[in-house]
Design goal:
The two termini are 28 Å apart. The chain folds into two domains: 2-61 and 242-256, no CATH class; 79-230, no CATH class. Mean pLDDT is 75; it is low at 1-24, 185-192, 252-267 and 271-275. The strands form two sheets. Strands 4-1-10-9-6 form a five-stranded antiparallel beta sheet. Strands 3-2-5-8-7 form a five-stranded antiparallel beta sheet. Strand 2 and strand 3 form a beta hairpin. The radius of gyration is 21 Å and the shape is elongated. By secondary structure, it is of the alpha+beta class. The chain has helices at residues 2-9, 25-36, 38-45, 49-60, 66-69, 171-179, 208-212, and strands at residues 79-88, 99-106, 109-112, 120-123, 128-134, 140-142, 154-158, 161-166, 196-205, 219-230. 21% of the residues lie in helices and 25% in strands.
Length: 275
Amino acid sequence: MIQRQVAIGFVYDENASVLSGQTDDPPKLVFGQHDAFDDRLAAAADASVEAHIFLSELQAARPWFASLLSTATAGQPPSLDIVPAFRVNREQEIAGNQIIDWSLQVGAEVIHASEPERKLHWNVGDPVRLSLRWAKDAPYLPAPAGSQSHSGYDLIVFGDTITYKFKDPWSLLRMIQTFTPSMRWNDGPNSSEPFTLALSIPEIPASAGSAKLQSAPTSRALVFLHLQLFAPGEKQNIRDDFFPVVAPSLTAASENNIPTPSGAASDRRLAGGSR
């Protein structure tokens, strides 16, 4: 039953709303069922708007799992290519000019903001690490991390540098979920360019002199990072950040010899916020 496979294969943590599955087999089963019953599913979808939306979003999610589904790379874990663009949306940032260096590490690969644009390759299971370093003469520094825990990542502050470490199997998706704002900053909630991430970072004065000049003991930097995501080897970047979670009920399912699922569609977006 495709509904059951979706429930297993596109597993979301109810609190974080992020894909958190531990195996790459269920997505393969989901798309295998979809392809095997494509004609009958399409016929059933004609009788249900929810089913039509679900199948469209399932198809749109296919590029996320291209490396798993392709016959040329059969058996390989899901993987993606990433092209980061650091310090985007400068007209909307706050104190971004204090940050002198950005770096993104994916597995063993690292790229800095000062380097030419290039792709990084991420496999399920690879850790992701994002670091930002303040200039030595900046009036502020990142505030100490303290003892507060963070869902899905470790936060480390050492002097002038703040680092976010994502270590779960779906680390890349966890990072996107963590930093995607509820409203996209470039063109609003219906932007055609997803994966623009917003980092809101508490700051403290860098010195006693800086502190005297400030009206409040802490401030906050707001900076942006954009990711282009590609199925391995593809030139067209992924533009859809929704995953179908539960297959809707199909009233016409029995007429088309399709197992009838139960349940209703739920929030499908990879990262929190309104669609």
